[in-house]
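Crash report, auto-generated. Payload:
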Amino acid sequence: MKKIFLITVAALLSTAAMAQDKQKPIYYSISFPNAAHHEAEIVMTVPQAPQSLRFRMSRSSAGRYATHEFGKNIYNVKVTAIDGTDIPFTQIEGDLYEVGSHPENIKISYTLFGNWTDGTYASIDPSHAHLNMPAAFAWVIGQEKRPVKFEFNDLDKYGWKVSTQLKSEGANVYSAPNMQYMMDSPTELANSKVTSWDVVNTDGKKQKINVSIHSDDDQATVDNFGKMVQKLVLEEKAVFGELPAYDYGEYTFITDVYPTDSGDGMEHRNSTCIVDPLEKVAGNENDLLDIFSHEYFHSWNVKRIRPKSLEPFNFEHANMSSELWFAEGFTQYYGDLLLTRAGFTSLDDYTRTLAGLVNQILNTPGAAKYPATQMSRYSVFADNGVSIDPNNNVNDFTSYYTYGGAIALALDMRLRGEFKLTLDDYMRQVWLSRGKVMKPYTIPDLQADLAKVTNNPKFAADFFKRYIYGIDKNNYEELLNKAGLVLRKIQPGKAWAGSLATNAGRGRSGQQRAVGTEGLAILSSTTIGTPIYKAGLDAGDIILKADGQTITDPKSFADVLAGKKPGDKITVNYKNRTGAHETTIALEESPYFEVVTYEKAGKQLSKEQGEFRNNWLQSKVK
Ligand SMILES: [Zn+2]
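Recovered output after restart:
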């Protein structure tokens, strides 16, 4: 399994070609006789099967950082000789099978159930087969380097075409050079509408970009949306100076838009799987572009500028990475920034995004206590990892997306202010020294690249020590001021108690059940440092009275606060499993910030501030 991806693309493809001479491909044939009930029939032919043979389903998926039990959705598992003779096998773990004595060529078959459309799972119905490969396809242990072929049947029956980064071998057959590439190649079989165009890369070579959309939209909508994506692609290219050399000269946005979809985007080497629970694309173009912007940036940052910790991707286990503040966080920052540069986000909307980043890094207990590296490692639990018991994430976790995004913002501002450089210069350096040459990086490598681009190893060492390994925070008020943006308290002079997850709010994961119907039940952990936390209130408590008023819902509690000022104290009566209690909440001012332009704040924007802002936010496409 090692070294599979630690080689250049050219080497990857030539190695595969060499292997093909020696070893026949493992061949998957997929049919859909029962799509109405969300089933696919999969037959896997394994020529030259090794004597000691185990096969399994995956427990993780390329780009998803937590584990998932894909083995639960396969059944009717059978192993036979090519002539159909049964071969004995044993299920030795939930997702692991061991085959007994067998001939050289065997077939493994099973039924796959899938009814969840996102960037990780499989979904089958007469409208489509949305196949994320780890969720759909079993694999033979020890045969990961062998080439793989897929035959997608029943396409005409359902009117489907194939959207994938797999290599087309003609008709309905597609291939991958090895298992790592196969697992990275989600495939959507659907009556998708496609729009394509060529981008001439910096080296003069053409790269084809496809936007494939399975939705209830007409071709004109898809074509028009494709024009917006074209603009975005060029804005992203301008950051790095070039597009990656896509493996077969193509990159495909595999998109599924439908109200019952889950919202998700998952990056891959030469494609991305974008799933959005919108009614349709028409009228929602800007919403949808947000995921496109983020995922496309990943075709540089994470799929090629690759942390060593994710190499090779382990499909039996979750790869733990300390680098997601960069891989995801810097991508998060650019996803929003590039929409602004390309003219799809207004400055006022962008200031709200900036406020979100700043509040995450300055006002969450996770970021106050733990470095971005540690929060990155928590992804093995946080990234759609499923559990039924509540967690304490409001107090022990800050997302590496926003934490890293806030660090990227600070670094961008500081490079501009202190070095007459930009974060684009840094990203280009990392691209050239790590991504383009496919040399997986460690955090010291990222520091070395910052030292190189700034020509100031001391600055780089200090930045990494304080803000990456440490929990110091940059001065965002001062940094944003350079661009004529004001960071200020969102509700000055107003009383604030902290946020409450209650039985009246929107459903949240990890909630406890409310006991009875009286009062206002707190359903999940309160946040360290907030007045309600300090007053001792937490999940399981039911607030009955505040300041003498009967509390029945969030509004009655908010009404009590509305008449108070920071510094006021209110008595709260509540009950829980140990009986009735009384406590005092000392109200404070909300620590949350907003970001507004100088213009909105009624301040005079200086020439320098205007120039700084334009250099940062204006299009870089020449
Ligand atoms: Zn991402």
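Post-recovery validation: The chain has 20 helices and 27 strands.
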